[in-house]
Amino acid sequence: MSPDVPAKDVKELRERTGAGMMDCKAALTEAGGDMDKAIELLRVKGQAKAAKRGERAASEGIVTSYVHHNGKVGAMVEVNCETDFVARNEDFAAFAREVASHVAAAAPLYVSEQDVPDELREAERRVFRDQAAGEGKPEAVQEKIAEGRMRKWLEEIVLLSQTHVNTEKHESKTIEELRAALSASTGENVVVRRFARFAIGD
Question: How far lies 109's CA from each of 27, 106, 147, 189, in Å?
Fold first, then answer.
């Protein structure tokens, strides 16, 4: 390695972008050792591998809030990315604001399906099975009905599975689809970490 580009920096850049060692070294040299600038250079050249995004740590990001114009409901969200460079990106900030406004309006309970407690999931599944059985449907159909209702219930309580409330603006895309599009455009792992919703009287 050339003395002005430490081997550890090249290794870190490679881990964060999935680009080749020589490409990482060249980008760091061109960027004068600035990690964020080197990541941007690799992205511009298309050398940052999108497939590596999910493996990389999302330890940067922003906390954004939204309060409805009537002052009676609001939300805060934490959205993470990998670099401070993307955290300062206007598209990233806009996505976080859109998530916050959606949370205020739609009142999800969990970020992802993995966050839904198993006991709650099983309790709901039993209710849906009992409902299907009570409707006199054939047994083979009951399970399909219960699974369909389970899917709809998860869409109602899970943030990433919900269609954004502003369907016209976002073309009826789910929060997960919007997140995935931002992840693709920034070349980074974008994670909706957590949210809190506040409403007068709740």
Answer: 43, 9, 20, 23
Contact 153, 145 (CB under 8 A): no
CATH of span 7-48: 1.10.8.10
Contact 92, 198 (CB under 8 A): no
62 sits in which H/E element: strand 60-67
Question: pLDDT tens digits for 83-94?
Answer: 889 999 999 999
The CATH number assigned to the domain with range 60-112+158-199 reads: 3.30.479.20
The neighbouring-strand residues paired with 79 are 62, 192
Cα–Cα distance measured from residue 173 to residue 147, given in angstroms and rounded to the nearest whole number: 22
Distance CA 202, CA 59 (A): 32
Q: Which helix (H) or strand (E) holds 80?
A: strand 73-81
Listed as own residue / partner, the contacts of 169-175 with beta carbons closer than 8 Å and 24 or more positions apart are 170/98, 175/99, 175/102
Neighbours of 146 (CB within 10 A): 21
| Tokens coding 33 | 């050792």
Average pLDDT across the chain, whole number: 87
Instruction: Report the pLDDT value the prediction gives residue 1, as an integer from 0 to 100.
Output: 42
Domain parsing of the chain, residue ranges: 7-48, 60-112+158-199, 117-157
Q: Are 182 and 91 in contact (CB under 8 A)?
A: yes
CATH level 2 (architecture), domain 117-157: Orthogonal Bundle (1.10)
